[in-house]
Structure prediction request, 344 residues.
Amino acid sequence: MDARTADFMLFAVFGVLCVFGGYWARERGWAREELSRSLHFITISVIWSLIALIAIWRLPLHPSGIWILAFEPILVLLPALVITLFCRWLGFSPDKSVLIGIAAGLSNRGFTLGAYLCYVILANPDFAPEGIDASAPDAAELTAEAAFAYATSGVNLMAACGIVFLFPLARRFGPEGSADEKLGPLIFKSLVSLRAAMFYFAMLGAALAILQVPYPAFLAEGTILKILIYAGTFGAYAGIGLRLHFNRNVLQPGPHVILAAAQFVLVPLLTLALLATTHLTNNPSTPLLSRVYMVEALMPTAIQTVMIANLFHLDSRLASGLLVVNTSLFLLVCLPILLLIFAG
Prediction:
């Protein structure tokens, strides 16, 4: 096992410990479940925003990056619609159907899993994008940072698409009176609230990259970014643990089987189809961007699933259960496959 693979395994163990640490703290009475909301707010609006700025500032400027804008709306909306309608066809209640659909449309492709995994296993100068000398001593590190920047760009757009596409879906199929206000103002407020700061910090990072503003040496060293990633992971997963409950409703196999099929079969097939489509054009996806999306295609459902469940009065306990079980399946099945292919 090389140093980067060992680094990611340590990161994965840290994330699991954060979940069960939050769960244990609530069970022991050391922290209230409501603390989860404040923890997630600080994590999203402050820590994730800084990570987005730092990462995307080093985004490789290549025309193929435009495919991120095309891929993300499809990868969010299509699985969510297909799985929601499939669950309704199976006889699930509307609110449970849309919750599973939302979980299928959102993947943990950001700093807490997918982007960091891309940073670890795609540090290969053979995949270096245009502008990086593959023979340079730091080519592997620069390629890893480019992969991280691509993944970070994608997850920021995924978050925006989640607000624009999945909020109406949650309102349509969710409990009557959900979200407590009209949908239009809700979407607008979500896009301009502090919770959306990550999206705007990402755009600032992209602007700095386009304007070729020099990247500070103290950020290029990488320690600050890694500290922020671990801090963001603690806030995200400990917050999930605080809301985690195990009961018969949460552990029913049906929703977990459907979500696993969506995240680990439907989304990868859809991703491969999208990547293949780019090669029918004059601007095909680059080797690095393609590999980033191949890795990200196998990610489990996202933490935002639980946040949307809370906002629209869906079953937040089932949402937490879906997140934990789906992530566990990823760690047991998909992660070893990815490490074997890319880090072996």
